[in-house]
From TrEMBL:
InterPro entries: Methylgl_synth, Methylglyoxal_synth_AS, MGS-like_dom, MGS-like_dom_sf. It comes from the Bacteria. This is Methylglyoxal synthase. GO terms for molecular function: methylglyoxal synthase activity. The active site is at D65 (proton donor/acceptor). GO terms for cellular component: cytosol. NCBIfam families: MGSA (TIGR00160), PRK05234.1 (NF003559). It catalyses: dihydroxyacetone phosphate = methylglyoxal + phosphate. Pfam families: MGS. The lineage of its organism: Bacteria, Pseudomonadati, Pseudomonadota, Alphaproteobacteria, Hyphomicrobiales. It comes from Oharaeibacter diazotrophicus. Belongs to the methylglyoxal synthase family. Its EC number is 4.2.3.3. Gene3D superfamilies: Methylglyoxal synthase-like domain. HAMAP family: Methylglyoxal_synth (MF_00549).
Length: 132
């Protein structure tokens, strides 16, 4: 079986339009990944890019961030695109911190804003090698 890299997409409400624009701009490249997303982010991306199959997890405040964190801990993700809203207080701030922390612990590529995500998705190294 051929290796298919996995990428998670997460965006806070104020950043969801950015995520939709990102997905539209990179739809061909994203089609090469198994995509996972928190609930509402996944719905927005699927609606904007119907040809992209996105596995939707729970909404972030209801545990979706933690589900993605668990995937990282289990070695099942090759990258995280997480458009964080730095200007709004979040009821699940601890989950946000836990998710970004695990991406650091396991040293997976993580883009926290559109500019970095454009660079990351443009890199041939993203998802190039099977997970160890
Ligand atoms: O809250 C989120 C990330 O912390 C995102 O969750 P939704 O995609 O369900 O809005």
């Amino acid at each position: 079986m051929t290796f298919r890299p996995a990428l998670a997409l997460v965006a806070h409400d104020a950043k969801k339009d950015d995520m939709v624009a990102f997905a539209r701009a990179h739809v061909d490249r994203l089609a090469g990944f198994d995509l996972y997303a928190t609930g509402t982010t996944g719905a927005r991306v699927s609606e904007a890019c119907p040809r992209l199959p996105v596995t939707r997890l729970k909404s972030g405040p209801l545990g979706g961030d933690q589900q993605i964190g668990a995937m990282i801990a289990e070695g099942r993700l090759d990258g995280l695109v997480f458009f964080v809203d730095p200007l709004s207080p979040m009821p699940h701030d601890v989950d946000v911190k836990a998710l970004t922390r695990l991406a650091l612990v396991y040293d997976i590529p993580m883009a926290l804003n559109r500019c970095t995500a454009d660079m990351m998705i443009g890199s041939p190294r993203l998802g190039a090698a099977p997970r160890s």
